[in-house]
Specification:
alpha+beta, Double Stranded RNA Binding Domain, 8-stranded antiparallel β-sheet, 8-stranded mixed β-sheet, 20 strands, disordered C terminus
């Protein structure tokens, strides 16, 4: 049993006692009948020689040791606390320091007295009890008689101090437990000594240790100080997960990087954080599976590969995320960022959609939503939130089933709004996509049919009459009464004047028409020969566009590279038409191209006036039909809107789809 040692040298109260087997164990229990303290001696320390030796204030004048460290526990139940106390002499004066909190991550230090620093920590631990006080002598264990005797014994018997120590076992022969213990001990002693030096160099400015790396016999060690679960580390892990996901870094690839760079978080920690994020998001915005209708016949598909059809048929489900769940999650953030105003609770919500071949095997259709109030981020793919995703094609019958939950939610948002944190938010709904997807969702016929316009009643027979003022004259309430609207619109809650083809596809289709007219003109005058094609390729190379012509095997038709949007804009702005046309002809076509490029640039400005857009578009049409340029039969109607499509662009959905 532990021995009970009653203090005799100092006249303390008769009930005070020290229960311990020190130095066999490093535990000491001290009680004075009112309060008990449990000590774990980390470093016994020693008494400096006079005149450096300092004494505690009070009638007992306890000696204050140097190089001393102890963990002290006191209190009961919810008031039980543990701190780590240090005493080190700095410039011949004792510096008292107490570390507390989770993993002793917080600290207070003072060179005034042990009681001063003890009561400073007490206010941190119990902020609601300002009148509480504690003895610094007891908290530091300066009064412990057993420690005093041990220090004085060593001081009076230097032979024991000079006794050679047994050399430690070589590291390569140690067990993993021993290696970890040595690393921990080394880290603690290193921190203590470095904090002493830090106080000398930086004074009262606290030095916080975060990480130390070292090696022993080609074995690398890394010591991380502070909490392993603190907010800073979690934020770092979240940032790493974001970087890994956005840059498509595989798990194996990150493992290799982490093995080379020790400062990187371990792969398992990153993986655990990703799982945590996924679980959290699945709880807040769950994904619902929807059975995909039977795949249509191959004649209805955009591709004819039997392998593709087989893959599509094997995938039975698509995914849906609730628009209400997404809004509930992001609206509070938008309020904090100043995007939404609770005093004007109106959200302008836009629905977009498109399909795309994913590789050579399958096609996906994606439907997204975006908040138009967030003008600074409307063109960024990360701010377009996916609601529907399925493998298949853009077909009315499939979309009707896959988007049914979204359609119902949008109807409820339009009619009833949405309550988020006690605020009722009302919604203005918009729809924007390419022409094909827009026509499908409107239940409209093909754009090359007799009645080709979703907004007005112009027919093909009036196409050559440029005197007709094409206005929006259809109404959503009676949309199926108009020629060409054979099916019920999928989003009847969105007014027809809020259905807008996006600017990117307008540019792509008109560019295609302008470029095809150039090629057709070259062919018409028998100039589309090898020399002409080489000139085009060289000019494309000059402006930084990768472009080629080729002839399919067994065919006389020449094909060319299909350009992306940025390359088409580059050609529209910078291609030197003088290389393939006479100067007068090149000047006319260049003016037409420049005017269209300017209109497209203006469309992207949020301050572009709809009336100005209408005026400039009509002027451009007159230039297109000017004598010596093109005929009215070469027009392909694509846009008849009165209002500007500014801020409704959908091309971020294209970027998101490619991700």
């Amino acid at each position: 049993m532990p021995k009970v040692k009653i203090a005799k040298k100092n006249p303390r109260p008769s009930l005070s006692k020290e229960i311990t087997e020190y130095p066999k164990t490093n535990n000491i229990l001290y009680t004075d009948g009112k309060q008990s303290y449990y000590y774990i001696i980390k470093q016994e320390g020693l008494y400096p020689q006079p005149p450096v030796l300092a004494y505690a204030q009070g009638k007992y004048n306890y000696k204050i040791p140097d190089y001393y460290c102890v963990e002290t526990t006191w209190g009961r139940a919810n008031n039980k606390r543990t701190v780590r106390c240090f005493i080190n002499y700095i410039k011949r004066k004792p510096l008292f320091k107490i570390m507390y909190g989770v993993n002793f991550s917080e600290e207070v230090q003072s060179n005034m007295s042990s009681t001063a620093v003890a009561n400073a920590v007490l206010k941190k631990l119990f902020p609601n009890n300002e009148k509480s006080q504690i003895s610094g002598v007891h908290l530091f264990g300066i009064h412990l008689e057993i420690l005093k005797q041990s220090r004085e014994l060593k001081l009076s018997n230097p032979v024991n101090q000079s006794k050679p120590l047994k050399p430690p076992k070589p590291l390569e022969l140690c067990s993993k437990t021993t290696v970890n213990r040595r690393q921990h001990e080394f880290g603690e002693k290193l921190k203590q000594n470095m904090q002493i030096e830090g106080t000398i160099i930086y004074g009262e400015n606290q030095v916080n240790f975060k990480q130390v790396s070292y090696s022993v016999k080609n074995m690398d060690f890394q010591i991380n100080y502070g909490s392993n679960n603190d907010k800073e580390k979690e934020e770092k892990l979240i940032s790493i997960v974001q970087v890994v996901d956005q840059n498509y870094i595989s798990r194996e690839g990150y493992q290799v990087l982490a093995s080379i760079e020790s400062n990187l978080e371990r792969e398992w920690a990153v993986s655990d954080q990703r799982i945590k994020i996924t679980r959290n998001m699945n709880e807040q915005i769950p994904i619902t599976l929807i059975n995909i209708p039977t795949i249509p016949t191959q004649s209805e598909l955009d591709f004819f590969d039997p392998e593709i059809t087989e893959i599509v048929q094997k995938i039975k489900n698509g995914g849906y995320r609730s628009a209400k769940d997404i809004l509930t999650y992001i609206v509070p953030v938008l309020i904090l960022n100043g995007v939404l105003d609770i005093n004007d609770p109106i959200i302008h919500l836009r629905i977009s959609g498109d399909g795309r071949n994913v590789g050579r095997k399958i096609k996906h259709v994606m439907v997204t939503m975006a908040i138009l109030n967030d003008e600074n981020n409307i063109y960024k793919p990360d701010y377009h939130y996916t609601t529907v995703l399925y493998p298949g094609i853009e077909k009315y019958e499939i979309l009707e089933i896959m988007m049914a939950p979204l359609i119902q939610e949008l109807d409820e948002l339009k009619n009833n709004g949405l309550i988020i944190n006690g605020i009722i938010w009302n919604f203005e709904l918009y729809f924007s996509s390419d022409w094909k997807f827009l026509a499908i969702c409107l239940g409209f016929n093909a754009p090359n049919s007799k009645f080709f316009c979703p907004w007005c009643q112009i027919s093909k027979c009036h196409q050559a009459n440029n005197q007709i003022n094409w206005k929006i004259d259809k109404k959503m309430e009676k949309i199926n009464e108009y020629p060409g609207h054979n099916k019920r619109p999928l989003f009847p809650m969105i007014p027809l004047d809020k259905w807008i083809p996006d600017e990117l596809h307008i540019m792509l289709r008109i560019w295609d028409r302008l470029w095809n007219l150039v090629i057709a003109e070259l062919k018409e005058y028998d100039q589309f020969d090898n020399v002409c094609r080489d000139e085009i390729i060289q000019e494309m190379s000059r402006i930084g566009v990768n472009f080629h012509f080729w002839q399919e095997h067994g065919a006389n038709v020449w094909s060319h590279t299909s350009l992306m949007g940025d390359d088409k804009l580059n050609v529209l702005k910078n291609f030197d038409l003088n290389r393939i046309f006479p100067p007068s002809r090149a000047t006319k076509i260049r003016e037409l191209w420049n005017r269209f490029h300017q209109i497209y640039f203006n469309i992207k400005s949020k301050n572009y006036d709809p009336e100005l857009f209408k005026f400039e578009a009509e002027n451009w049409l007159e230039l297109f039909l000017a004598p010596g340029l093109y005929r009215i039969s070469e027009i392909t109607p694509i846009y008849t809107k009165e209002e500007s499509p500014t801020s409704y662009a959908i091309f971020p959905t294209d970027a998101k789809r490619w991700r």
